[in-house]
Amino acid sequence: MITYIVRRLLMIPLLLLAISLVVFSMGQLLGPDLLVSAYINPNVAERMTAEQLNSLKEKYGLNDPMPVRYAKWLSNTLKGDLGWSQVGKEPVLDAILNRLPYSIEIALWALFPIIGFSIWMGVKAAVKHNTFFDHFIRVFTLIGWSFPDFVFGIFILLFFYGVLGWFPPGVISVEGFQIMRSPEFTNYTGMITIDAIFNWRWDIFIDGLRHLIAPILTISYLWWAYLLRITRASMLEVMRKDYVRTARAKGVSEKNVVHKHAKRNALIPVVTVSGQFIIGLIMGVIIVETVFNRPGFGRLTANAAQTLDYSTVMGSLLFTSIIMIVGNLIVDVTYALIDPRIRLE
Amino acid sequence: MNKEEIKRALRKIVKNPTAMLGFVLLIIFIIVAILAPIIAPPDYPIESNLKEVEDALDDFDLSKKTDILFYFNNYLNSEYQFIMMDYPDLMELKDTLTKYEKNEVSFDELYFLTSELASYYIIDRYYLNRLTENVNSALKELKREISRQENIYKEAIRIKTEIEKLENTSDNNFKKQAETLHKNIYKSYIKKINYDPYIMRKVTNRNEPQPPSSEYKFGVSGGRDIFYGVIWGTRTGFKIGLIVVLISSSVGIFLGSIAAYFGGIVDEIIMRITDIFLSIPFFLGAMVITTILGTGLDKVMISMTVLGWMITARLIRGNILQTKNEQYVLAAKAIGVSDWKIIIMHILPNTIFPVIIQASMRIGGLVITAAALSFLGLGSPQGYADWGSILSYSRDWMSPENWYIIVIPGVAMILFVLAWNLVGDSLRDIFDPKMRM
Amino acid sequence: MDKNNKLLVVENLKTHFKTEDGEVKAVNGLSFELDYGETLSIVGESGSGKSVTVLSLMRLLDENGYIADGKLIYKGEDLKNLPDNKMRKIRGKEIAMIFQEPMTALNPLFTIGFQIMEPIKIHLNKKDKEAKQMAIGLLKKVGIPEPEKRVDQYPHELSGGMRQRAMIAMALSCNPKILIADEPTTALDVTIQAQILELIKELQKEYGMAVIFITHDLGVVAEVSDRAVVMYGGEVFEQGNIIEIFKKPKNPYTWGLMNSIPRLDLEKERLWAIPGSVPSAAKFPKGCKFSNRCFLKDDKCINDHPELIEVEKNHLSRCFKIKELENEIIKVRSGDSL
């Protein structure tokens, strides 16, 4: 088990290196002039002397052959210098880190309901196979799967905000914002709801939550549908297995047959899919932040792509890849924890 | 698949209501896409001379012969007047270029001739500047420009000849010939001015949405007719879905087959490459590629193809690995059939089914992704008939009275994806026991 | 015959399945009795309904199966009508079952120990520590070496024979009155097969259980049973004491089964097999179900359905041609060299 984890950990830097190569070479396609603007604020660049510009180019290796340039890029990246973000108007690393908490907040709030709900419903639907409940779930998942998430988001915004006025876009109301800016409120994590709890301000908590519900619903719907389907299908298959029959033959209660014997086996494919789910969350965050106008990491990336802000987009790609790789590692370890057959490989 | 299995499969489809719904929806969409020019006729631009010809032909009698010929010639003169004049000069430049490359002529002479032509606006000043910057690429670009002008000239000559033929034709044949000529000239005209029926025409310059009316059945958004956009958007949807799926699946099949069949180090390398590509988050990767290549529907399709072949590759590799060791393959090998033949004739037909099914299930997701990218402004250009970009207009007008700019294209998209998902789903249900995913 | 003293009395069991092609009568009127400590074999080819019989007994049928008629009287109580929670107390405790494929019948995610301890904890209410000790003891009893180590291992870490032994340990954990063994050796090597059969016989003596053996292998039947029920097409075709059935078979199907066993001690030129194969559930012939494969058939067999009759004391057969069979057997046996 330990060797398994160690092996996977060793793979990470290799994978990151490969991705960094891909990211780097994609960028070099831009051409040297554009690259300069990727590294420094153009307003500042205008006022630089030729000497200063040249030393900048030296630093980023823009005058050097490719391998040297890559080495310099790599070392700069590892030091945290990812270039200048035009849309963020600050260095890329800062731009991303400052906005990351908002996105993490959505992801956290969405993650547990999605997984919990899907598994619970999926198991239930499989157990109540071919009943009305089951059919309802099947229709639910089919529609969810076909609903583009941004369309769903817009619909929700239209209805719940436009018609009902319940869930406004943005992250917090104007009044709440004032409170958060004032000295009586301390920012610990950058996430509104979490900080509100730490500050024991339930009004802020509710405020933030109100703005979170619609984005969470939007991200969730698509993934509920998908995970639910997989759980249900997997559970149906497992319920037919011999060992489930053996468990019944031993006199195990139906509840334990389903939740102890069958469910654990059925979750294996679900865990496998969770790797994709992590990517899906990231994509969902991009869309949701754009639709609901939340100043997070996702919207930063979207704006950057639209304005061809290369360095920001590359920074986002790097970040996302890291998250994904770590996420996949967690998934693999979970997989090994659940299934003893994997551990002994 | 023999007849019995096909019949059973069809029966299963018919019995299953959701599958039937999917197929029906899909057929409706296909019909709409094919009949788009009829349902929402595009606004073909009008050229006045050609319009005169058209009117005259509609109400034809021999007295109108001279008029028709007049308008044809008028058209020729107005469109092609300059190229006719400048042609000899351009040919001289072409000649000089060749001579320069053979070192029969000095750079100064070439530069002089080019600056003369530039001063008469025969060619753009840009080329002149280019000559001083970078001679080699200037030469290439000049050659390209000259040959482009040459083609226009050839077209002009062709039209001229045709008109002359028309002048000399007998009275009996005149009408018919004139009509054919009109059609051809009109086609070349449209090409010349780059008319794209996919661009939704602007019906008003005001940006606020306007509700559905008798003239604009689905309303107006961003100054454009939503009905037109939704109908032609069907074609776009099919275009995107089918092209991307076809190409990415082909790439996937190719790579996967090679990896599986030859095994060993080939397999290792291809699988590592697949893994690396798989670690790139799809949506983000597409955004990165569009950042580098620029925005546009074709760039979006490229990025989706580049990032979409991996699962197909893995799928077919898995299937082939299973089939590779089946008896009939070993038998073929023993007889001495070549590797390629074995792959194409024995292995692929038996492993292709799951790939086809998976491909049909992917189309829905692809259309959604393309629409999302368009929604973010990374896909089709302004005004292109694509549901995603129609929805992007709605970002500024999000209130209940503007429901139609959101609901109508949204529903179109949902139904389209639903149709593909239902169809793919039912296909998979039918062939499930045979599928080894 | 005092019915009330018998351990198990099955009366006219009819189990049906609802399928796409209609209602299938997998078991159509099966009756037998089982005494304390007896071994009964249910013999037949695949599709005869033998597994369905015991699954009906345990009420472990699939979704679309149900008991249409009959009585399943265990210690005087009809199992058919028992509410679920009471039935659960019977499964694993009074009646236990082992299955054909030990690899798939054991949950791959739980240790052997856990799976053996489960019925112990449920039925005997023991705490973890004690249950584990009992599990180790059981593993030793079924002949698994190093039981302390094995008890924490997973099914895929054991060989096929050991898995089957573990299953037996699991079944015996609560000292059941009836052990049902559904083709326990079919998936194992021949040498292991013999060991497992030996084991079951020993344990049966030690625990004083009755055993119902499901098999298609007459060799196994001869080795372990006291009595046998021969099934075909969901019906009993012959039933009785094992020695009598082998010495004096009263049904051409049984006779066919016996002859299909390859024997080295007799000179035979070709391997004999019952012609044809078992038809699918919907396609049994009218009249006698075996008629399309029987060498003694005549028009009566094809058109009329024979009933089960008592040919000799406690020896039943379902056939119109019993006399003809007896003659045939005499003919054949006098021709065998000894």
Helix content of chain C: 25-40%
Strand order of the largest sheet of chain A: 1-2
**Computed CA radius of gyration of chain A, to the nearest angstrom:** 24 Å
What CATH calls the topology of the largest domain in chain A is MetI-like fold
Strand content of chain A: under 5%
Low-confidence blocks of residues of chain A: none
**CATH architecture field of the largest domain in chain A:** Orthogonal Bundle
Mean residue pLDDT of chain A: 80
Please give the CATH class of the largest domain in chain A: Mainly Alpha
User: What is the chain-wise order of helices and strands of chain A?
Assistant: HHHHHEEHHHHHHHHHHH
Helix-strand topology string of chain C: EEEHEEHEHHHHHEHEHEEHHHEEH
Helices of chain C, by number, come to 13
**Rg from alpha-carbon coordinates of chain C:** 21 Å
Spans where pLDDT lies below 50 across 5 or more residues of chain C: none
**Count of distinct structural domains of chain A:** 2
CATH superfamily of the largest domain in chain A: MetI-like
User: How many DSSP-defined strands of chain A?
Assistant: 2
The amount of helix of chain A comes to over 70%
Quick gist of this model?
Chain A has helices at residues 2-28, 32-39, 42-46, 50-59, 66-79, 92-127, 132-146, 149-163, 174-181, 192-198, 202-239, 242-249, 254-291, 297-306, 310-338, 340-343, and strands spanning 84-85, 90-91.
Describe the fold and architecture:
The complex is a heterotrimer of chains A (345), B (437) and C (338). By secondary structure, chain A is mostly helical. Chain A has 16 helices and two strands. Chain A has helices at 2-28, 32-39, 42-46, 50-59, 66-79, 92-127, 132-146, 149-163, 174-181, 192-198, 202-239, 242-249, 254-291, 297-306, 310-338, 340-343, and strands spanning 84-85, 90-91. In chain A, β1 and β2 form a beta hairpin. The radius of gyration of chain A is 24 Å and the shape is globular. The model of chain A has no long low-confidence stretch (mean pLDDT 80). Chain B is mainly α and 437 residues long. Chain B folds into two domains: 3-39 and 213-435, MetI-like (MetI-like fold, Orthogonal Bundle); 48-192, no CATH class. Chain B is built from 18 helices and two strands. Chain C is α/β, with parallel strands linked by helices and 338 residues long. Chain C has 13 helices and twelve strands. Chain C has helices spanning 50-58, 84-90, 102-105, 112-123, 128-141, 147-150, 160-172, 190-207, 218-224, 242-247, 252-259, 299-303, 322-335, and strands spanning 8-19, 22-34, 39-43, 65-74, 77-78, 95-98, 178-182, 210-215, 227-232, 235-241, 309-312, 315-317. In chain C, α4 packs across α5 (128-141), α4 packs parallel to α7 and α5 crosses α7 (160-172). Chain C starts with 7 loop residues before the first strand and ends with a helix. At the A-B interface, α1, α7, α8, α13 and α14 of A face α12, α16 and α18 of B.
